[in-house]
Design goal:
The chain is 35% helix and 11% strand. By secondary structure, it is α/β, with parallel strands linked by helices. Helix 2 (60-74) links the parallel strand 1 and strand 2 (79-82). Helix 5 (119-137) packs across helix 6 (157-164).
């Protein structure tokens, strides 16, 4: 039995995570894309039923085409955490990602938060998503990212399920305070959550300032806040912590023309729509300021079992 299941409570599990320090400092940072469309985000889950997804205009393929062109111009590679629902309907998109030299990874099948699934349901989701992506791409899928970073104090069992399903790493924790996710006391940099094997968890990057973890690893923070705030954090991590950074964004974040979802609350509208028109320019600047690579070329991903 793995170490994760033998701890009597979550506090001791999290404390144990920092016992195996990982030296993976290098010149490159990890660039990642969470491949989901605008109508699939967690913020709209209460407004859009998953059964109605096929009725919405799908814009992810055109946005990924733009992203692939951006990456080619900047001469960078990235890891694409891709929803199985997207892959099944856009198999050519999967081939484009792989043929361009990027890493294909899993974002689950239907963008369910782990907190809303039983271990059995989660297991079925991650196994089927991995198999589908591998069948379509012809490459091994080594990594996983939980929708909405839903590995929290209450869902630590996810890591063991991932390891047993054949994944070799996850990037599903965010060590910050947030109303929807986050484990502030979790390690800030890549670590092994199990003593018995080398499965790797790679958190999204935060900078430590005034005894607080400040988010600087992309997503809404990068889009909503001034550009310099993210680069201040990234520079601090590289200079003071001497660790690579983990950065992420979504294809819909470069798409100001996406349809608006009626009925969304003000906070949701602010979070989702602010600065969509500025995101591509910011990303282009970021791509040309730092060195970026796909996850499996930045971190020491363990070898396949067997």
């Amino acid at each position: 039995m793995n170490q994760l299941t033998t701890f009597p409570d979550n506090a001791q599990i999290i404390a144990g995570w920092s016992t195996r320090p990982l030296d993976c400092a290098g010149p490159a940072n990890a660039l990642t894309v969470d491949v989901e469309d605008y109508f699939q985000v967690e913020a709209f889950a209460g407004l859009i039923d998953r059964a109605d997804w096929p009725s919405y205009e799908c814009r992810v393929e055109r946005n990924i085409d733009r992203i692939l062109a951006m990456f080619e111009r900047a001469d960078v590679t990235a890891t694409f955490f891709t929803l199985g629902w997207i892959a099944k309907r856009h198999p050519i998109l999967i081939r484009k990602i792989v043929d361009a030299g990027h890493e294909l990874a899993s974002h689950g099948t239907m963008h369910y938060r782990a907190a809303g699934q039983s271990p059995e349901e989660f297991r079925e989701d991650i196994v089927s998503a991995k198999a589908l992506l591998e069948d379509l791409s012809g490459v091994e899928v080594k990594g996983y990212r939980a929708p909405s970073f839903s590995i929290t104090r209450d869902t630590l069992w996810i890591l063991e399920e991932l390891q047993q399903a054949g994944y070799r790493y996850s990037s599903s924790t965010y060590p910050i305070h947030h109303d929807l996710y986050g484990i502030p006391e979790a390690p800030r940099f890549a670590f092994h959550p199990f003593e018995a094997n080398d499965f790797l968890e790679i958190p999204v990057t935060t900078a430590r300032l005034f005894n607080t973890n400040l988010p600087c690893g992309g997503g809404g923070y990068f889009r909503l806040l001034p550009y310099w705030m993210s680069t201040f954090g990234l520079n601090r991590v590289r200079r003071d912590d001497k660790q690579p950074c983990m950065f992420y964004f979504h294809p819909w974040e470069i798409d100001p023309g996406q349809p608006r979802i009626p009925g969304a609350a003000l906070k949701t509208r602010v979070r989702h729509y602010t600065n969509l028109g500025r995101m591509e320019k910011r990303l282009t600047k970021l791509l040309n300021t730092y060195k970026w690579q796909r996850i499996d070329r930045v971190y020491p991903i363990p070898q396949a079992r067997g």
